[in-house]
Amino acid sequence: MLFCSCGVGSSGRRDVPGCDCSVLDPRYPETRRFIIGAWVRAVRDWDLDGFKLDFIDRFETNGTFCDGMDCYSVEDAAE
Questions:
Q1: 25 SS3 class
Q2: Exposed site from 6, 42, 69, 79, fewest CB < 10 Å?
Q3: CB distance 1 to 10 below 8 Å
Q4: Environment class of 47 (CB within 10 Å of its CB; exposed 0-12, middle 13-18, buried 19+)
Q5: pLDDT of residue 41
């Protein structure tokens, strides 16, 4: 599975305290494949002429590096 960060589960999703949400961690290659696949399907299936991702300008990490991650930096993983 690609949801959960170190200490929380298997690989990729981290719950955000006080936010009632979770975050996908792109340092896992399967998480990046999942996210990119979702974007590609949206563009293809909805016949979009363009696609803009907004508010992806701040990255946080819990400072851990876990088995399965292939990037230490979230910024590097999100490129």
A1: coil
A2: 79
A3: yes
A4: exposed
A5: 92
Residue 77 and residue 71 in contact, taking contact as beta carbons nearer than 8 Å: yes
The predicted structure's pLDDT at residue 4: 41
Q: Where are the alpha helices (DSSP H) in 4-71?
A: 29-45
Please name the residues in contact with 20: beta carbons below 8 A apart, sequence gap of 6 or more.
none
Nearest partner of 23 among 41, 40, 2, judged by Cα: 2
Joined tokens for residue 6: 């170190």
Nearest to 26 by CA among 42, 3, 46: 3
**79 or 1, which is more confident:** 79
Element counts in the chain: helices (H) and strands (E): 2, 2
